[in-house]
Design brief:
With 512 residues, the protein is mostly helical. A two-stranded antiparallel ribbon has the order 1-2. Helix 4 runs antiparallel to helix 10, helix 7 runs antiparallel to helix 17 and helix 15 runs antiparallel to helix 16. The chain starts with 13 loop residues before the first strand and ends in a 14-residue tail after the last helix.
Length: 512
Amino acid sequence: MVFTIASLREAPAINPVNHKAKAIPALNPFNVYGRVFLLSWWGFFVAFWSWYAFPPLLTDTIKKDLNLSQAEIANSNILALVAALIVRLIAGTACDRFGARWTFAGILLLGAIPTALAGTATTPHGLVVLRFFLGILGGSFIPCQVWTTGFFDKSVVGTANSLAAGLGNAGSGVTYFLMPAIFNSLVQRQGLSEHKAWRVTFVVPFILITATALAMILTCPDTPTGKWSSRSRDIQRHLDMRDTFFSAATAGDTKANASSIDSGGLSNDTMQLNSGTAQGHYTDAQAQEDDLLAAASWELVEEPTIKNSLEAVGTLSTLTLIVVYFCSFGTELCVNSILGAYYARNFPSLGQTGSGSWAAMFGLLNAVFRPAGGIMSDAIYRSTKSLWGKKMLVHFFGIVLGVFLILIGVDDPRSKSVMFGLMTGLAFFEEAGNGALFALVPHVRPTSNGLITGVTGAAGNLGGIIFLLIARYSKDSANYPQVFWIIGIITIVGNSLVAWICPIPKGQLGGR
């Protein structure tokens, strides 16, 4: 479907087979698809805001107030990622069992509790414990992606996922401006001491997180057809449509019936799902039947069991997602944690505030670069009708990301223009690569979409933990260039090793 500005505010065309939107009404919260999209990215945004709320105040105000050592700060950073990893694994299965909306709201409400209690930390140990439980909010990424996947058609799902994730991920950058601004306002205008002000600051994200969770529960459905628990009733309708179509096709009226079904609303991308590369001995009727089955099964998520979960996670296609996101999002988490200190080391004139502000730009660029990756991926898919195009784009981004990491590590720039230029290039290939990857994720075992999304997302957190451990235990803890080039080599090797793997498991419905 061709993008137009009007599509951002108009009610979208709907695919009648799966009731998913063929456009993204991002500026129309009165439309249910626009409202789901808004709360998907906004819920992720406020969750990341709170998850990253400590670092902007941690290096100075909170560090002095709680007498923190650098090792204790590093421990709190790592434990926050560990908690997010655990929650992401759980959230994936929860999305498949209970639906993304309730999983999303549950994560926000659970994460709101440590957010409200953040100001009660009085010791380094208390801070570490609170930051661990704040890591719950890092799991919000999983239902964000699963929810948008459930509401938007394959022709635009990459754009929807990457745009929601990009806007939400920007919360990690915005918090570097918002938390100090709220803190300064409380000190300068309300007359609070620094000891009290940083604690009161956390009330703001707590209110927003709670309000957002309630809005999800009260104003949005689980799926385009209603309740998650009743989604299985659609199965027979899809199968009946398949049988009616195929019976007519084998009676010699295939062409007419295919046209009528297409004109009834199936998008060309859905009807042509890999038909162009079907085996030559397939009849048109058989190929169309496979396409219709693929469209019908797209939203029919299986009840998770140990058997089907192991089958879904155990494929090489899933391994590809795990390896790539381990490298790309792992890089993002590590860079977010050390970039401010790296800037301060190479450019002392920036000071703490200047270094933090420039480091925050890395996270803020997600709002532009991550959607760009998803949009490019969708465009390639519409043009080539092949998932290999999507997959090769992912590996291109990953390998070039590795090159930028090595360049920064080897050169260790002392010129601001060179450093900021290289970091902008790194941000583009890293963040666009994440967007492109999650444009591919919905195609891999769509009947276990929550599980696959959760495992992939958790792999990113695992990458962040491993890379931060490399940074902490390197020969010189301030040798940031070494950390960059080591991660760069890992990223290039990882992408090269899995580039040959088929985008989706062999034999998957619609996989021809």
